[in-house]
Amino acid sequence: MGLIQIDLFSTLDGVAQAPGGPEEDPSDSFAFGGWQAPLTDEESGTWIVGGMDGMDALLLGRRTYDIFAGYWPHQDGYIADLFNRIPKYVASRQDPDPQWAGTSWLGADIPAAVQDLRTRHENVHVIGSLDFVQTLLTEKLFDRLNLWVYPILLGTGKKVFAGGTVPSNLRLLEPAATSPKGVVMQRYALEEGVPGVGVMS
């Protein structure tokens, strides 16, 4: 059974809106689009690329798909070659018009479609797609959560753990790693059950 892996870039206060550039998602008058760029260093970049090893499909929300489809087909290099080669699956409430070769649409039954992807692929990655991620969190339709946390506070913006968050157990897969500019990489696996409670004494 294949894995569904969520890859997100987050500020220390959990904002994941528009890390890549000002035009990525300016909704709600978000003023910090592109916040990731000043904090990127060689080590964190290596982690991001390395995290794509074994990826054999992309699963994207509509906004992220449109951004990727307008950019990656016109680029060269390892990431472009990978993204252009592997199948792309898109969650969208609107009637789709595929722009990118290898694109398919999930349809209305998201849980069934994600389960089907698990039977066809080994490593499906969800990159960005913050609104869609809320559905995956709510339905626990993921196996791994890969977070790159950047040492800034923005105060406003769409959060990683927003309307889709439900009580869940996660297990840290490896010790967190820190880059020279303070980016912290954390990889978690979704575990069974809900968080327990107790008394500290």
What features would you describe in this structure?
This protein has one domain (3-158, 170-179): Dihydrofolate Reductase, subunit A. The chain contains five helices and nine strands. It has helices at residues 42-50, 62-71, 78-85, 110-120, 130-139, and strands at 3-11, 57-61, 88-91, 103-105, 123-127, 144-150, 169-172, 177-178, 184-191. A hairpin with a 5-residue loop joins strand 8 (177-178) and strand 9 (184-191). It is globular and about 60 Å long. It starts with a strand and ends in a 10-residue tail after the last strand. This is Dihydrofolate reductase family protein. It comes from Arthrobacter horti. Residues 4-178 form the Bacterial bifunctional deaminase-reductase C-terminal domain. Pfam families: RibD_C (PF01872).
Question: Termini, distance in Å?
Answer: 42 Å
- Into which percentage range does the β-strand content fall? 15-25%
CATH class: Alpha Beta
At the fold tier of CATH, the topology name is Dihydrofolate Reductase, subunit A
For CATH, the homologous superfamily is named as Dihydrofolate Reductase, subunit A
Q: Using DSSP, what is the number of strands?
A: 9
Order of helices and strands: EHEHHEEHEHEEEE
What number of domains?
A: 1
What multimeric state do the chains show? single chain
Report the sheet with the most strands, covering strand number, pairing sense and barrel closure. 9 strands, mixed
Key structural traits:
201 residues, Dihydrofolate Reductase, subunit A, 5 helices, alpha/beta, nine-stranded mixed sheet
